[in-house]
Design brief:
8-stranded antiparallel β-sheet, mainly beta, 211 residues
Length: 211
């Protein structure tokens, strides 16, 4: 059994892969699922489902849980990460058919965007979304998403249905710990002269050289 579905006997070669050039063989090794701050994901105008569609890699084709738009066909999803991310690809499974979003707009580090102000902001990047039952991969311009702490996704309209439906959202890329809060190392245990035992016979020797 293999997670990839098409890695027949390839496991032993995984260490040879430079998967920066090999996005066709998507795998869990680059998946940012564990680095999404899922408790703080916000989905606007939905059926009550939000972070549940950001699923682990092995559930990417699961259709038992889906997010659907509510009042109309627009959805905003704000996704914070637990560190600094260099995003490589957005993964989406949407639909079916006319419930597929027409496009998706990505905004880097726009953690508070909502419907009132999103129209004034130019997306960092946007993609047309194709209909299909598979997971689509949308490779972003990494230079535009190279040191981000959140990404906001905006689905402006469906492909004809009254609502937009999303089954799965995933992210591929590279995560690093955020450097914002450096740990201050305290050196109390080191050379604090006042705490050292005095060496007998030297007290005051320097201050009264003529005694």
């Amino acid at each position: 059994m293999s997670h990839h579905g098409h890695s027949c006997g390839d496991e032993s070669h995984d260490h040879d892969h430079d998967h920066d050039h090999d996005t066709s063989d998507l795998g869990p090794q680059d998946n940012l699922y564990v680095h999404v701050d899922r408790s703080n994901v916000v989905a606007l105008n939905t059926n009550g489902i939000g972070p549940e569609v950001i699923k682990p890699w092995h559930k990417r084709l699961d259709e038992s849980i889906s997010l659907e738009s509510d009042a109309d066909d627009q959805i905003i999803i704000r996704v914070p990460f637990t560190g600094s991310v260099r995003l490589r690809s957005l993964l989406l499974k949407t639909g079916p058919t006319d419930q597929t979003p027409a496009k998706v707009a990505l905004y880097a580090n726009a953690a508070s965007l909502d419907f009132s102000d999103i129209g004034d902001r130019k997306p960092t990047q946007e993609f047309d979304v194709a209909q299909g039952r598979e997971v689509g991969e949308y490779a972003v311009k990494t230079s535009q998403f190279s040191n981000i702490s959140s990404v906001t996704l905006f689905f402006p309209e469906s492909q004809g249905a009254e609502t937009t439906q999303i089954y799965y959202i995933g992210f591929l890329g590279h995560w690093t710990e955020r450097k914002d809060n450096p740990v201050i190392t305290v050196y109390e245990a080191q050379a604090n002269i006042a705490d050292h035992p005095k060496i007998p016979g030297t007290e005051g020797a320097l201050s009264n050289p003529h005694v």
